[in-house]
Amino acid sequence: MKNVIVITGTPGTGKTTLSKLLSKELKAHYIDVGKLAIEKKLLIREDLKRKTMVIDPEKTSLVLQHIIQTSKNKTLILDTHIPESVPSKLVSVVIVLRTDPYVLKKRLMDKGFNEKKIKENVQAEILGNCLSEAIILFGLERIWEINTSYLEEKDALKTALKIISEKPREKNRPGKIDWLGKLYDEKRLSDFFE
Ligand SMILES: Nc1ncnc2c1ncn2[C@@H]1O[C@H](COP(=O)(O)OP(=O)(O)O)[C@@H](O)[C@H]1O
Ligand SMILES: [Mg+2]
Prior knowledge:
The protein is of the alpha/beta class. 44% of the residues lie in helices and 18% in strands. The site of magnesium ion (MG) has 2 residues, from helix 1.
């Protein structure tokens, strides 16, 4: 059984939903990494243009390292869209959530994000930014992907449980989701890029 589980992905891909379901199922401790960083003031600065706080990934990673090392064998679920903010060496498994750009755009509109923020996040998802960052930080072996675009929440949970209990399916290996290629083939890249 894997006991330090990172759930990452672009905002709107379903991290918090899945992390909370998982922590209930596994009786694990849930940590919203962004919230922890704000509570403990692990911040670089305030991004006035985006009206958000920019968290300091290095400081956050150190605090998480301490939490992991002092929580013995308790299972921890770390919910973050910044893979750099978790201590790579101590992580057992990383699940990167992915969402079809059209579905993601709708989810972010429902979340009340402004147009600029929606565009930035959907573009990041198309380019696979979160996945590529995760691969660089954690290496390919510990990483799995779940496409939540058309999955019910309970099915996303089932897939995540398979991954964590070391019975993952081949289709969840990273590299199978390519929004950029799909949009190119469908001649629809201009829906998201000038
Ligand atoms: N597996 C899923 N399938 C379909 N919709 C989902 C799924 N997970 C989350 N959602 C929906 O997507 C939206 C964003 O989910 P959330 O968990 O807040 O994402 P994040 O924490 O990554 O920003 C919510 O409205 C939620 O209902
Ligand atoms: Mg969230």
